[in-house]
Design a protein that fits this description.
single chain, about 140 residues, alpha+beta, Glutaredoxin, 7 helices, elongated
């Protein structure tokens, strides 16, 4: 019986094909590339207003808002999460307490949110703006 086992083992070892590492590497690279394409396609629209947000910052425009303010969230959504990180935003709320304002906003006399401040006159407007309106007021081009 052990002779029969040895013969079967020998046949199995001879029947096994060697690992094709080149093919495995190719498939691994193909999978990584597919994930990269999906990531790129999923995030490219999120950066649509990056240049616009940078332009607002460069021009000295400021938006005062609070983390708990639903109108501020609406304004942020117009930019998109990624582009809004580049926008000229000043947080007036203190995390965890909706009744306290930051000292910067107290010093500036900010009472309502969102408040936009436009240079050079320092004009302040308390409302949610369409991006087209911000573009007209500031001269910053939309994509």
């Amino acid at each position: 019986m052990s002779e029969l086992r040895r013969e079967r083992r020998k046949e199995r070892e001879q029947a096994e094909t060697p690992v094709n590492w080149g093919q495995r590497v190719f498939y691994a690279l193909l999978i990584v590339a597919a994930f990269g394409v999906v990531y790129y396609l999923g995030t490219r629209h999120q950066h649509k207003y990056d240049a616009f947000a940078k332009c607002l910052t460069d021009r000295g425009v400021k938006m005062y808002g609070a983390w708990w303010c639903p109108h501020c969230q609406e304004q942020k959504e117009k930019f998109g999460a990624t582009s809004f990180k580049l926008a000229p935003y000043v947080e007036c709320g203190v995390q965890g307490d909706t009744s306290v304002r930051t000292q910067v906003c107290k010093d500036e006399g900010i009472q309502h949110y969102p408040t936009w401040q436009f240079p050079p006159t320092g004009e302040r407007v308390e409302r949610v703006f369409e991006l087209e309106d911000l573009s007209e007021r500031t001269g910053c081009a939309l994509p």
